[in-house]
Write a structure and sequence with these properties.
Length: 211
């Protein structure tokens, strides 16, 4: 088992990255395909629904999908610290499907998908290699991470929860969460919505529907 990666490490000083295709990453690191694909579908749905709020370009939609597909890549290496293990893996072996400039994005979205991601966590990022990224890439990474956290939470129960009706109102968006695990996943989405709440003024509300 690999040692725990150092989140403060300067990854630019490590060996040259060796990009691998998504399919190769799936096989090499034993990614749970069903969960990864569910989270990717959730992420794309949220990306599209919340586009008026996050303001990301459509050209970043594919990057959102790839970030979701590899977010749990570190689980087979270090379950309890898989966000850190995954980050280290993706610096060594970034997905070949994305440009060199954006390769660090998937490493940092993977790091940020787990545990709390509030103001203190974001401030601490400036004491890590994250601060070496351009301000544009940092902002992109945080927005994608906010969506990824919600998408991952939506599949927390592994019971196929999906987004139903969506209602935009002043200062808030109400998302209906449908499925047998809707209450579990809605609660998880509230918890994992901390980064979204930090970045955006619009509040997200989740309404579980199990019928």
């Amino acid at each position: 088992m690999q040692s725990k990666p150092d989140a403060k490490a300067n990854f630019s000083e490590k060996s040259t990255p060796k990009p691998l295709s998504l399919e190769t990453l799936y096989h090499k690191y034993g990614i749970e395909r069903s969960h990864a694909e569910n989270v990717a579908q959730n992420a794309l749905k949220l990306f599209d629904l919340l586009a008026p709020l996050h303001g990301l370009s459509k050209k970043h939609r594919k990057l959102m999908e790839i970030a979701a597909l590899v977010h749990d890549i570190g689980i087979s290496t270090a379950l309890e610290t898989h966000h850190q293990a995954g980050q280290a893996i993706l610096y060594r072996n970034p997905p070949a499907e994305i440009s060199e400039k954006l390769q660090p994005v998937v490493a940092w979205t993977t790091f940020l998908h787990r545990k709390k991601a509030g103001k203190k966590k974001v401030e601490k990022l400036q004491k890590t290699a994250f601060s070496e990224l351009s301000s544009e890439v940092q902002a992109l990474t945080l927005k994608l991470a906010a969506l990824l956290r919600l998408a991952d939470a939506l599949d927390y129960s592994r019971m196929g929860s999906q987004i139903g009706n969506v209602a935009f109102k002043e200062g808030a968006v109400k998302l209906e969460i449908k499925g047998p695990g809707a209450y579990i996943d809605s609660e998880r989405m509230y918890k994992k919505g901390d980064l979204w709440a930090l970045l955006f003024k619009t509040k997200l509300e989740f309404s579980p529907v199990t019928t």
